[in-house]
Specification:
about 90 residues, alpha/beta, 4-stranded mixed β-sheet, 3 helices, 4 strands, globular
Amino acid sequence: MTLRIEKASAPGYLMVRLIGRMQSEHLPDLKRYIETTGSNPTLDLEEVTLVDLEAVRFLIGCEYAGIQLLHCSPYIRQWMEREQPDGR
């Protein structure tokens, strides 16, 4: 299974729902998608089933950029915490 990207929006609000496996080969397309939105969307990770190291680092960068992560599974959140350089 690959990564599927779905968009839901309302005035002043954009949610990007990610479904499936989030891996490094999907990140360039996801970055472009986020950049073309013109704002910081909220990423819904409820249906993300698998991530790799580059995806984890991407998600860390998203949070630093002010992008909210919804429904982030405990295993992804723990991995993100271990990967942060400042040990947060």
